[in-house]
Amino acid sequence: MRHIWLSIFLSLSLYADAHIYLFHRFDDLRYPTTNTSTKELKTFFDYLKNNHYRVIPLKKLSHALKTNSKIDSKWIVFTIDDAFKSFYENAFELFKEYNYPFTIFVYPLATQEGYSDYMSWDELNITSAYGEIGAHSFSHSHLVGKNASTIIKDTNRSLNIFKKYGFDIKSYAYPYGEYDEDVFKIIHSFDFETIVNQNSGAIDEESNRFNLDRIPLTGKIDIEHALHFKHLNATWIKPSKYPKDSVLKVIKLKIDKKFKSVMLYVSGFGWQKVKVKEGIIELLFDKKLSSKRVRIIVKSDDNHYSTKIIVKD
Ligand SMILES: [Zn+2]
Predict the structure, then answer these.
(1) 136: CA distance to ligand 1 center in Å?
(2) From ligand 1's centre to the CA of 82, what distance in Å?
(3) CA 16 to ligand 1 center in whole angstroms
(4) 3-state secondary structure 240-307
(5) For position 11, what pLDDT does the model report?
(6) What are phi and psi of 252, to 5 degrees?
(7) pTM of the predicted model, to two decimals?
(8) What is the distance in A from the centroid of ligand 1 to the CA of 294?
(9) Does residue 9 carry a pLDDT above 60?
(10) Distance 104 CA to ligand 1 centre (A)
(11) Cα(119) to centroid of ligand 1, in Å?
């Protein structure tokens, strides 16, 4: 009996973990795949406010992970990549109105060159009073497959420019959300407090603050879907990288023994049900990959997600 009540309690209280969302452009209809309408955003903000979610700075979430503190399931973090001008012109006021902090991941090349679509240093300076500025590489080039010295140089170049303009950088977001073990090791060797990716998932106490999932929100925001993610603690074993011959032979990972089966997704191949044996998922996949960027996603019945991204160099 006690067990039943405990299960019910757990299923209710674990409804969701903390969530980090990712935006690019606002009210910019030229780029529908990376655009969010501020009308949709306002509806989402109202929902969060009315349902007692708390929008917190990324550094607060990261600090809780660093200090093994409790992660509050009502915590929400907002991040904006690339520093497009449409954030400054169309969304900044809304964030201010709700008093919602944010992190803007900037790649200084665009700002330095004064590309018309991007925020200026002055504009970044103004927004930084309400949010954090993070690094998004210097040149926004693909990092997977680049040699270590190129990545180190690119990162240092961005940090030096940020420093010149008075920004103290504590977090990093991979360009295109692309990384592998080599890229991770190099970026991790810098002093960042937090590294974020671009895989849809949530954050709980077992999350790694150097590999945090972010959920992109574009087009029409499905609020229930946006909030349904939970973190799945997984150790990915295979593949470790994009296969040289593009044939993905085996998918193998370790998850909690309590899961008996999961749904597994591979970009280009859709979802399939897979059995878990004693916490091990091992699937002979043996298919030729067609896209350069492939996500392998594992999802439990109760919406715990873990993603492995592999990128062709
Ligand atoms: Zn970007």
Answers:
(1) 7
(2) 5
(3) 27
(4) CCCCCCCEEEEEEEECCCCCCEEEEEECCCEEEEEECECCEEEEEEEEECCCCEEEEEEECCCCEEEE
(5) 46
(6) -140, 130
(7) 0.94
(8) 18
(9) no
(10) 10
(11) 14
CB atoms within 10 A of CB 55: 19
Task: Specify the pLDDT at position 14.
Answer: 45
CA 173 – ligand 1 centroid, Å: 8
Residue 2: which pLDDT band, with cuts at 50, 70 and 90? low
Distance 38 CA to ligand 1 centre (A): 20
Ligand 1: centre distance to CA 20 (Å): 16
- Identify the residue whose tokens are 């170049």: 157
Report the distance separating Cα 245 and Cα 289, nearest Å.
Answer: 9
What is the tens place of the pLDDT at every residue in 151-193?
Answer: 999 999 999 999 999 999 999 999 999 999 999 999 999 999 9
- Give the span between the Cα atoms of 214 and 135, in whole angstroms: 16
Residue whose pair of structure tokens reads 């809780």 in the numeric block? 64
Q: Helix H segments across the chain?
A: 2-13, 38-50, 58-66, 85-86, 92-98, 108-113, 121-127, 148-164, 181-189, 223-226
Q: 231 CA distance to ligand 1 centroid (A)?
A: 24
Distance 118 CA to ligand 1 centre (A): 12
SS3 call for 45: helix
